[in-house]
Amino acid sequence: MIRLTVPAGALTPEGRTTVQRELAAVLLRWEGAPDTAFFRAQAWSYLVELPADAQTTAEDDAPRFLVEVTVPQGALSERRKAGLVQDATRTVLSAAGLDPAEALRVWVLVHEQPDGTWGAGGSVVRYADLVALAKGPADA
């Protein structure tokens, strides 16, 4: 799951239209998930827009962007986390029409969900279950 929180009006009209699917694709790519309808449907992406004046810093009122990613513990190596953070930042900056020099206005928090603490479809889903699904049916 990936959630982007932004002040209203901080994204370009085109960026607001495309950012959720782009962030979901970034997440799937760095998780190493197969590009299948099943895994694309599980890559939930939320856009939370705050009132325009709901975010500030001690310095200024320029919009800041918070990307929160929730993945099963063990799904991302340090290299994959770094790539995810870099690509998510780039995606948000593009959606906001900002220059890469503004990268510090984007924070990415990776939340690793401990095994056995995530449920879907009424059942606990374990990381090993997802890995098995990604590999596809075992050869008989």
Ranges with pLDDT <50 over ≥5 residues?
A: none
- The sequence of SSEs as H and E is EHHEEHEEEH
Number of helices: 4
Shape: elongated
| Percentage of residues in strands | 15-25%
Largest sheet: 4 strands, mixed
Number of strands: 6
How are the strands ordered across the major sheet?
2-1-3-4
Distance between the termini: 33 Å
Computed over alpha carbons, the radius of gyration is: 16 Å
In helices, the fraction of residues equals 25-40%
Which structural class matches the secondary elements?
A: alpha/beta
In round numbers, the mean pLDDT is: 91
Give a nutshell description of this structure.
This protein has 140 residues and is of the alpha/beta class. The chain is built from four helices and six strands, in the order βααββαβββα. The protein has helices at 13-31, 37-42, 78-96, 127-135, and strands spanning 2-7, 45-50, 65-72, 106-113, 119-120, 123-124.
Would you mind describing this structure in some detail?
There is one protein chain. By secondary structure, the protein is α/β, with parallel strands linked by helices. Helices cover 38% and strands 23% of the residues. The protein has four helices and six strands, in the order βααββαβββα. The strands form two sheets. A four-stranded mixed sheet has the order 2-1-3-4. Helix 1 runs antiparallel to helix 3 (78-96).
